[in-house]
Every structure is written in C-alpha cells, then in structure tokens.
C-alpha cells in the first residue's frame, strides 16, 4: 500500500507542470477548490468570464489565483489566455510571412508558409516524399519499447459517450 | 497456457478485466480482433482501396507541404503515434506520421493510417501527452473511416466493391475518386465526426498511459487565436470552434478521468527549433 501511494504521488508530480505567468478566463461558472479533487472544500466561486492567473497544471486541474483566493479549478472550465493571441492576423506581418497577403493568393515564397485551399487543390503527388515518410515508420515493437522507456503503461479505458 | 487463454476469453466475454502482461495483452487483442472480424466482418488490416486512396492523398499533401527535414523529429513522432495507434482497434495498420513544413496550425488524416501535423501546430505543443492527444484525434478519423464515409456519401466510392478495388490500382482513377490534389483535406468533415475524434483522442492517449488532458490543453491554446488569424483560417473553417470542442469534451469526460493519472513526459518531448 505504501508503495502504491508512493507511486501515485510520483506520477502526480510527473503530471504536474509549472505554468506560471499564464492567464485564463472562466468558460463557465465553477468552484475553486482547496485541493484538486471534486469533493474538496470550495474556496471561492468563479463566474463566466472571470479572469484567473494560472499557476500550474495537474492532470485535469489547474491551480489558479483569482484576486486574493488561490486554489484548484477543473481545467475544462478555463480557457487559457485572456484575449486573442494576435490581432489583425492575416492582414499584418503574419500574412506577409506566410506569403498570403491580400487576396488569399500566394504572392511571395518565403520557403515556409501556410496551407490554403488553392495550394492543396493544385498539389501534385510527391513520390520521393512518400518514400521518405515510409522510412520513418515505427514498428509496434519499437513503439512498445519506446513507451516502456518513458514508463508509459497501457491501461483499459472505455470510449466516451457522445453528448448532444 | 490453457489457463491464460481461458482468462483472456473470460475477459473478452465480460469485457471488464484487464490482461496483465504484454504477452497477455497481445493475445487479448488478437483474440478480440478475430472475434470482431467474425461478428462484424470488419478486418483490422487496411483494404486495398483504403490504402490506395490514403497514399494518394498523403503524396499530394506532401507535394504542397513537404516533411520537415529533421530525422529525429520525424522518428520521435512516429514512435509516439505508433504507440497511441496500438491502443486502437486497428493496431495492424501500417501507421505513418509526419510533421510537415507549414506555419499553419493544423493536422490531417488520410485513410489507411496516414497522419500529418504542421510545424505550426507542433510548435504549440508543450509535452508528449499533448502530441499524443493530437495524434489520437487524427487516429480517430482513420479508425472510424470518416474521410472514406465522406467520399462514399458523394457516391464516388463504393467501399468493399470488387470493381472499385480493381479500378483503384490505377493512380489516375484514385485521383478521380478524391477530387483535385489534396483538396479533400481542406473540405472538412461534419461536426459530429470532429467531436467523435476528440473523444477518441482523449481515450487513446489515456490508454497509452498519458495524461488524458493533453488534447484539451492544445484546444485551449488554439482557442485563443483570433478568428481572423491566417494561421488558423483553414483549421477554423473545417472544425468547430475550440471552445465548443472543449465544452463537449467537458461533458463527455465529466469526472471520469479525475482519478486516472497519466504522464506528460515534458522532459522527453522533442523540441523543435
């Protein structure tokens, strides 16, 4: 039993990641808990649109700070980032870099660029690339030992129900 | 030995027990597949037309956006992807994974086991669990044959027909089935297919031992791109908004994964310069 607890604790540590500095917005009303468990004591309540600072992530939970309150909230109740990551997008520098300024046609070739429908439509089969792709294929056995190296353990998880 | 087979058959019958050793797991999978084939008539290997169509789409897509020239990256993605695909009901497909040269944030699947993600999407990822979640979503499209069903609906393709299987031996005819170039990947699937692939992505990565919240983490990041950002234009056109996808996952996942701890393997994650 001691071993098991130790293992669970170790995996918890591995699963958590520091995310200091990120902000988030509540996608729906939810409660901030004192610990990352559903039945833990509630510290504060969040309303849709409330801003939080994200301190770290642990599986399906985020440790957040909202005003003076600190605690854990379900990850899926929060959208990370307070606002749009970029504004203007395709009309600014980003469009120039991706060779897509103006009408959506490719006007410049900068080597790396975005993929739009026209480019996809006019694409031609590249046999050499398929050959290269084939050369990277991993066997099930190789992937199995790779998983083992990372201490990944296969487990049974049922498919999730669809929701309307 | 007899006892092991007996145990596997028993777990097959009640569908809840878990085989312990890798050997037993393999045996369990093999038995399950052969039963599935007999019951549903769905072979786990790819059909001739599925492979021909998939390879044509993959080759065309690579014609538009070639593989990133980084052998270590490509091999790493294939190992992670293959491990996740091994947790699906089609572990015997020859699965191909590739990171392609594009700043767009997107990922694509083609029939038969071809999966691609862009450099732009890869650079958003923070750990191996997130990569597993993204690949799991695309694996979901392949195992549920979402693209084939679209082609079928457009009456271009009659799956399982001997005549089609014969006709697809010719590259030009395969191209005729999928339209122009790789436009089929720009066409988009219906919303339900995307939500289904999200659920599969979460489950397959959890089965593989990863933190189940990898895919939701990526969706949260994509969610704060502005709608008019060119890098996500095609993704947003062909998929429901990330906030809707998160909302659906929230209801489906509920508290099912609260006690299922998994690994993120952020240290092993291959960082792209």
Q: Which two chains have the most extensive interface, and how many residues on each?
A: A-B, 79 and 104 residues
Strand order of the largest sheet of chain A: 6-5-4-1-7
Helical amount of chain A:
25-40%
> Approximately what portion of the residues of chain A adopt beta-strand conformation?
25-35%
Q: What is the terminal-to-terminal distance of chain B?
A: 50 Å
Helical fraction of chain B equals 55-70%
Task: Please state the average pLDDT score of chain A.
Answer: 76
Please write the string of helix (H) and strand (E) elements of chain B.
Answer: HHHHEEEHHHHHHHHHH
Structure description:
The complex is a heterodimer of chains A (164) and B (273). Chain A is an alpha+beta fold and 164 residues long. Chain A has a domain at 2-80: Roll (SH3 type barrels). In chain A, 26% of the residues lie in helices and 26% in strands. Chain A has five helices and seven strands; from the N terminus they run αβββββββαααα. Chain A has helices spanning 2-15, 93-97, 117-121, 127-135, 140-149, and strands at 16-26, 30-33, 42-46, 51-58, 61-66, 69-74, 78-80. In chain A, the strands form two sheets. In chain A, strands 6-5-4-1-7 form a five-stranded antiparallel β-sheet. In chain A, strands 2-3 form a two-stranded antiparallel sheet. Chain B has two domains: 1-42, no CATH class; 44-253, no CATH class. Chain B is 57% helix and 5% strand. Chain B has a three-stranded mixed β-sheet. In chain B, strand 2 and strand 3 form a beta hairpin. Residues 5-19 and 37-44 of chain B have low confidence and may be disordered. Classes of the chains: A alpha+beta (164), B mainly alpha (273). At the A-B interface, helix 1, strand 7, helix 2, helix 3 and helix 4 of A face helix 3, helix 4, strand 1, helix 11 and helix 12 of B.
């Amino acid at each position: 039993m001691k071993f098991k607890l130790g293992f669970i604790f170790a995996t918890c540590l591995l699963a958590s990641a520091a995310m200091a500095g990120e902000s988030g917005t509540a996608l729906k009303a939810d409660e901030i808990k004192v610990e990352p468990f559903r039945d833990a004591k509630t510290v504060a309540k969040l309303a849709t649109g409330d801003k939080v600072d994200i301190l770290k992530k642990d599986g399906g939970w985020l440790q957040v700070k909202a005003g003076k309150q600190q605690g854990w909230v379900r990850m899926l109740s929060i959208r990370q980032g307070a606002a749009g990551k970029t504004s203007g997008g395709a009309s600014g520098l980003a469009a120039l870099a991706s060779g897509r300024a103006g009408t959506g046609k490719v006007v410049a070739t900068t080597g790396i660029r975005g993929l739009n429908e026209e480019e996809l439509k006019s694409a031609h089969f590249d046999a050499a690339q398929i050959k290269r792709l084939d050369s990277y294929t991993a066997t099930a056995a190789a992937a199995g030992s790779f998983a083992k190296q990372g201490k990944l353990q296969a487990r049974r998880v049922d498919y999730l129900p669809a929701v309307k | 030995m007899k006892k092991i087979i007996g145990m596997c058959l028993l777990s097959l019958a009640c569908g809840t027990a878990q085989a312990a050793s890798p050997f037993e797991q393999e045996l369990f999978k093999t038995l399950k597949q052969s039963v599935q084939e007999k019951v549903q008539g769905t072979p786990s290997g790819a059909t001739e037309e599925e492979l021909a169509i998939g390879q044509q789409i993959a080759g065309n897509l690579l014609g538009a956006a070639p593989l990133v020239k980084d052998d270590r990256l490509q091999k790493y993605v294939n190992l992670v992807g293959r491990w996740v695909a091994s947790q699906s009901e089609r572990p015997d497909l020859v699965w191909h994974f590739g990171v392609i040269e594009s700043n767009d944030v997107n990922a694509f699947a083609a029939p038969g086991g071809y999966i691609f993600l862009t450099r732009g999407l890869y650079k958003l990822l923070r750990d191996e669990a997130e990569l597993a979640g993204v690949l799991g979503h695309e694996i979901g499209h392949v195992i549920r044959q979402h693209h084939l069903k679209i082609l079928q609906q457009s009456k271009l393709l009659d799956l399982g027909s001997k005549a089609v299987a014969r006709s697809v031996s010719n590259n030009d005819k395969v191209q005729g089935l999928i339209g122009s170039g790789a436009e089929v990947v720009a066409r988009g699937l219906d919303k339900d297919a995307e939500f289904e692939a999200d659920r599969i992505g979460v489950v397959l990565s959890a089965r593989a031992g990863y933190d189940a919240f990898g895919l939701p983490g990526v969706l949260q990041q994509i969610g704060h791109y502005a709608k008019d950002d060119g890098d996500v234009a095609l993704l947003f056109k062909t998929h429901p908004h990330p906030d809707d996808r998160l909302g659906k996952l929230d209801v489906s996942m509920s508290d099912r994964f609260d006690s299922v701890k998994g690994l993120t393997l952020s240290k092993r994650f291959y960082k792209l310069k």
